[in-house]
Design a protein that fits this description.
- The longest helix is centred in the first third of the chain and has 29 residues.
- The protein is globular.
- By secondary structure, it is α/β, with parallel strands linked by helices.
- It contains 8 helices and 7 strands.
- It has a 7-stranded mixed beta sheet with strand order 1-7-6-2-5-3-4.
- It has one domain.
- Helix 1 packs antiparallel against helix 2 and helix 6 packs across helix 7.
- It is an enzyme of class 2 (transferase).
- GO terms for molecular function: 1-acylglycerol-3-phosphate O-acyltransferase activity.
- Keywords: Acyltransferase, Membrane, Transferase, Transmembrane, Transmembrane helix.
């Protein structure tokens, strides 16, 4: 049954993407930039409905009150394609720093350019990176929310922390709060796999780390806060979903936590 539901969901997911892009693209490019956000946000909400209806997976968000009213860095755990789009409906005007190659993709690239995402050549240095930072500062100055995954690429649930120093540089240069977010969608939508598992999980938005710390102190604080909260949430999620097949990283981390208890 899980295989059948997974196949049906994957088909529905991509059909939904194609249909919405065909139907909504003219509207997206005709309305003002900020108003146009309703198109990808509606797509995200429709995916949540598909995930619930076909697979039987639901989620809830805790800590929305921790989101600042002004500009900030939104720093979630990154485990799955789910967390790329899932929280967009709860952010007013987010943007990403993304690989410049994504801007070259037909249609998708036009979408991200309309929303003034900040493209970057990952091998760039010097003036190019200074220009990227200036663009980022300009967007933040308008009250937007920069989404950054502190560990960079997707990591399986329970994997040892591997935080990049880039977020500390952004924290220092942008001088805005960082909002840590922990969750374990990778238990239900595993990376690099087509299987989708039913159940219920939580997204936990933690209190912001205010601007002004030394970058090294900030990074250690971020790691400590996120990893402690992530461990707690991993235990809760597995307890609430005993049917889940755990990836080796999650099973190993649970053993370590049990040994420490």
């Amino acid at each position: 049954m899980i295989i059948l539901r997974s196949v049906l969901f994957n088909i529905a997911f991509y059909v939904n993407l194609i249909v919405q892009m065909i139907v909504m693209t003219p509207i997206y490019f005709l309305v003002p930039r900020k108003t146009a956000w309703f198109v990808p946000k509606n797509w995200a909400l429709s995916n949540h409905w598909l995930f619930k209806t076909i697979v039987g997976t639901t989620f809830e968000i805790e800590g929305l009150e921790n989101i600042p009213k002004e500009g900030y860095i939104f720093a979630p755990k990154h485990q799955s394609f789910w967390d790329v789009y899932a929280l967009l409906p709860w952010l007013s005007d987010p943007f990403f720093i993304l690989k410049r190659e994504l801007v070259w993709i037909p249609l998708f690239g036009w979408y991200v350019q309309k929303q003034r995402m900040v493209p970057v050549d990952r091998g760039a240095r010097g003036r190019v990176m200074a220009a990227v930072m200036q663009r980022t500062k300009d967007e933040m100055a308008t009250g937007r929310q920069l989404i950054i995954y502190p560990e960079g690429t997707r990591r399986p649930p329970g994997a040892p922390p591997h935080y990049k120093y880039g977020i500390a540089r952004l924290y220092r240069d942008l001088a805005v709060p960082v909002v840590p977010v922990v969750m374990h969608p990778g238990l239900f939508w595993p990376r690099r796999k087509f299987l989708r598992f039913p159940g219920h999980f939580k997204v936990r938005i933690l209190p912001p780390i205010e601007a002004g710390l030394d970058p090294d102190v900030f990074l250690q604080t971020l790691v400590d806060v996120m990893e402690t909260a992530s461990d707690q949430l991993l235990v809760e999620t597995v307890k609430d979903n005993p049917h889940l097949p755990l990836p080796p990283t999650a099973a190993q981390r649970l053993k370590e936590l049990q040994a420490q208890a």
